[in-house]
Amino acid sequence: MVVSGGGTGIGLATAEAFARGGDTPVLIGRRADVLERAAERIDGAVPVPADLTDPEQVARASAVIGERFGTVDVLIHNAGGLAPAPPGDGSDPLVAAAHEWTESFRINTLTAVLLTEALRDRLASPGGRVLFLSSIAALRGSGAGGYGGSKAALHPYAFDLARRFGPRGITVNVVAPGLIDDTEFFGGGLSEERRRARVAETLNGRAGEPGDVAQTLLWLASHAAGHITAQVIQVNGGAERGR
Questions:
Q1: Residue 157 designated active-site
Q2: Fewer Cβ neighbours under 10 Å: the N or C end of the chain?
């Protein structure tokens, strides 16, 4: 199985879950040192450093995977995050908006598209699985329009892939988490007050954990979920409905 953003948080928990089931995780990400540390934790894991916004690096990563494994049974797109702060002082709202939206689509949408297109002919047929990590922000907004928009863009792409790959016996689904603790998503910037407010929106009174998402992905990749495709599965404790 291949997981982008596999060095930390949800990606790492997912790689560990698949490894426990006997799979060999291929960890893709920009930071080689982070991937190496993750691979040390997971017996047999293979780190493949690559910037997934760069077509040349994606092609090289695909070639490495092809030479090492030939076929990809499960492809999980976890890489992404919030756009970095705009250059300068951010006082020009149009410049700031252009930066937020461009960077959001580059790191959340383009990364998934390039890696999928690079590996599409290597996906196991039949039985392959393609899984995208979206967000509750794609369903109801979050205050960061660029981020929510870039995650929402994955949904129609996944549905189109489901149609394209269906005849090959490959399923394509989307998992949309809500607030998940123990990740680098907020970069330490989520205040306790804001966290409590997010938790209060859930129906079960708690934040999610990386394992909640990992186990959902593991199930969607299993034979038991073979007739589920072109779906968005929410993992947010009911927060999308709100209290």
A1: no
A2: C
